[in-house]
Amino acid sequence: MEQSKIKIGIIGAGRMGITHYAIINSHPDVQVESIADPSGLVTTIMNKYLSAKTFKDYNTLFSEAKPDAILVCTPPALHYPIAKKAAELGIHAFVEKPFTTKYKEASELAAIYAQKGLVNQVGYVNRFNDVFVKMKELLDNNIVGEIIRFKSEMFSCTITRSDVSSGWRATHENGGGAVFEMASHAIDLVHFLIGKPDKITGSSLNHIYSKNVEDAVSATFLYKTGKSGTIYVNWSDTSYRKPTNKIEIFGTGGRLLADQHSIKIFLNKPNEQYQLRQGWNTLYITSIFKSVPFYVRGNEFTRQLYHFIDCVEGKVPQNLCTFTDGANALEVIENIFKDYEQNGRI
To answer: Residue 194 has what DSSP assignment?
Structure first.
């Protein structure tokens, strides 16, 4: 007898919710049975073209659709109550980054899901990008020796005109601003490749177009081991057409520079394991990527959701981006805000 499909509910049908619907709906073991969104226009359109049931709020979705797992794609301020309610009902959860808006809430959810044995994942998609996965492998194999310094950056042209202080992106309370929305990616990439810092210092927040939130952020990360690095994020940089992550790592044996599309490797000595010569080498994503069954925006978007389903089905031993990872990013975010308030203002 064919095994029953996993019933998926999607909460929030904005840009990311629709993207995730398209991807997860391609999985052969999944049935997207329910979608919740407060917009009458959105639910009317979905009722016309999709087979999934639609609801105006997540509580009704939970009580009537009874999903096995949910994808949470609402503004960040709503993530905590939705994920907590899902845990009470024994529902697995994938939650978009930055997970929640408060470290305390994130830590609470991480503990609850761990105690209940529920699958939990945060949408830090860079952990599933082919280039950054390869970079992690190279670092784990000591390709550039001991890490001394690093720089993690992200740029986009998301905010390019003065706002009118409306919408969830215009307030920190709702999870808006460059730190929550974009720097969280740069922070998590550091955690994935290098580890969580022991201290945050030198934090700076800049307004470019926004009135109530920052458009650019920089901070220095310090480690007890002696290594250090910086992050710099700007979501008002019109020289970038699409969001771009960059990371540079300097070690005792060489240097790595990467974005979502390639890795440039400088080695003081040749490496036989990876057939890399002394000096500069380049690995392009076209030579290292692994194909996915369905493509939207990037292989990594499909890979993270298929990984979530693998975890729900028990096919992999552990999740690669848990609620604990999301909480770690939020702890750093809160420390950046705290450091700026205490030391960054002149």
So the answer is: T
Residue with tokens 């794609």: 73
Considering only CA atoms, give the Rg of the chain.
Answer: 21
If 0-12 CB within 10 Å is exposed, 13-18 middle and 19+ buried, where does residue 28 land?
Answer: exposed
Q: Is 235 helix (H, G, I), strand (E, B) or coil?
A: coil
Residue 298 burial (CB < 10 Å; 0-12/13-18/19+)? Answer: middle
Q: Quick one: how many helices (H) and strands (E) in the chain? A: 11, 14
Rounded CA separation 182/178 (Å): 5
Residue with the two structure tokens 């990037």: 298
Helix, strand, coil % (nearest 5) of the chain? 35, 25, 40
The Cα–Cα gap between 139 and 256 comes to 9
Instruction: Please give the single-letter amino acid code of residue 95.
Output: V
CA proximity to 95, closest of 339, 244, 304: 304
Tens-digit pLDDT profile for the chain (346 aa)?
246 899 999 999 999 999 999 999 999 999 999 999 998 878 788 887 788 999 999 999 999 999 999 999 999 999 999 999 999 999 999 999 999 999 999 999 999 999 999 999 999 999 999 999 999 999 999 999 999 999 999 999 999 888 655 677 788 998 999 999 999 999 999 999 999 999 999 999 999 999 899 999 999 999 999 999 999 999 999 999 899 999 999 999 999 999 999 999 999 999 999 999 999 999 999 999 899 999 988 999 999 999 999 999 999 989 999 999 999 999 999 999 999 999 877 6
To the nearest 10 degrees (0 to 180), the angle between helices 130-140 and 184-193 is 40
Mark out the alpha helices in 117-154 (DSSP H runs).
130-140
Q: Hey, what domains does the chain have and what are their CATH numbers?
A: 6-125+301-322 (3.40.50.720), 126-293+328-344 (3.30.360.10)
CA distances from 217 to 148, 179, 257, 301 (A): 22, 7, 21, 26
Are 103 and 327 spatial neighbours (Cβ–Cβ below 8 Å)? yes
